[in-house]
Amino acid sequence: MSESTAEKLVELAKRRGYFFPSAGAYGGVAGFYTFGPQGAALKQNVEDAWRERFAVREGHQEIDAPTVMPEPVFEASGHLDGFDDMLVECADCGESHRADHLIEDNTAIEEAESIAIEEVEDLIDEHQLVCPSCGADLSGEPVDDFNLMFGTNIGPGDSSPGYLRPETAQGIFVEFPLLKEYARNQLPFGVTQIGKAYRNEISPRKSVIRTREFTQAELELFVDPEENDPDLSRVEDVEVRLYPIGEQEDEDGELIETTIGEAVDDGTLASPWIAYYLGVAQEWYERVGVDADRFRFRQHLAGERAHYASDCWDAEAELDEDWIELAGFAYRGDYDLSKHAEHSDEDFTIFKQYDEPVTVERATVDPDMSYLGPEFGGQAQAVADALADLAEEDRSAFEGEDVTVDVDGEEYTVPVEKTDFSVDEVTESGEHITPHVVEPSFGVDRLLYTILDHAYAEDEVGGEERTYLSLDAEVAPTTVGVFPLMDKEGLGERARDLAAELRAAGLSVNYDDSGAIGRRYRRQDEIGTPFCVTVDYETLEDGTVTVRERDSTEQLRVPVDDLDETLTALSEGDLAFADVDGEPVEEE
Ligand code: ATP
Q: Which of 134, 328, 449, 581 lies 20 to 30 A from 177 at CA?
């Protein structure tokens, strides 16, 4: 069997310093990876590109919140109760597995995450699924919910439990009362964050695709659902491939090739905000090197979607014939802010000023507590609050002699005259609203993997097999490799000076003087360096160097004087290699 791209890529990633399992000296630990020098540089470049597109260009603010947060945050967000995956343990070898993944891997069923736990147990029996580690029969094994959060104690003792954040988003939501002030209480406004998230995945796998510590880049956009719409004209012509629910449920369903504008018009994309971000994301993913032919947006099936999300789409990339989620785009309504308002004493609303003050009728009560107190004891205040709510909801309840309210399932009857019920005209200048949240949530590690996979290429140069990463210059860890033909007779010195000059011009340069030139080219090809420059004897005589382009391996002789400008223009896409003013050189 020939090696898959995944196997080749993982080997290359370790050998060339992209990524490798952490703490190998101690046997390693599943689900933790270190990005080596190339990987760290690629990650930084991708994060910078994300920041430029989703924060700076959209006019949003970026924050940097802690990765450990106290338990009440996750009680409010729902993670403590519901951030679970389905766990099945092998009774023979004790290995833990994600039950929904076992089903997806061994049956034709897709998205098994949305299936109820009892049904998952039945499917394991029905398909006689076995333990992937030891082959033992898993039929009859119980499937349990397993919470994915890593717990810790904040300070000594265990009185203050905390958790490593399972997503960066909560660090934004909990600070909304301050963030809205920084945004001068004007909707819409967006807040972004790039940072680590932690999930105690049951079975981390596929190298950096499913790890226990990873990086997310999230944007939380706060909108007034009645007033704020995106400017769809900016993305309406963007071509996308969509996989909506209808197509997923149809046996012959297929990807729909369309534009954002058409998909909004024909109702495939129901939320204008999601449509907007899918358009922006499509262009951005292509810009950083995701292959559009191996990329799609898939709509969440009803059972997959969080109950509060009205619509959700995932960006997915095809890797070795599997579709992998890269990002999620959800319309979350007012769920997050309402939950934090309920669980804390802070104000998670925004005061929305009307254009003109409005006069409205307000029904109010001012109950006689000297009557309610003796009559209802400890429930008196609750009865007063219930009367106030009822006055707002149903004035007719106060038309008779008595009014009855329900408090915790008990009925309490109060004479209307003791409620001081009245209806008055009041002038209001605005109202408090809880903003809705639109959330594009990107995973950085899976994207890095995808960029490498989609850039991975093999060909033959000068009769020899070659592997190279066809990375875009914007994200490539190194832009230019600089080599002296050999480190002799002043060539090394001239090449080191040139490397320093190019670095000073803002280019990322890798200086290499070891081994034959051909080998040095192969090394740069394998890490995806778009251009290489060779200094030779001619350079000392006539001030020209050889510049070689990675993908075509074409070489040109160009003057060294304005090399920094030429390389900058090439790397920024302002100049094509074919248009560089230079003399063609014989192939390697
Ligand atoms: P999955 O279904 O694959 O577990 P998810 O739907 O739980 O992912 P989200 O909560 O939507 O993921 O997180 C947003 C993004 O964070 C994902 O699209 C993915 O790119 C990234 N991500 C989530 N979990 C992991 C992980 N364990 N390892 C690496 N990246 C992850």
A: 328
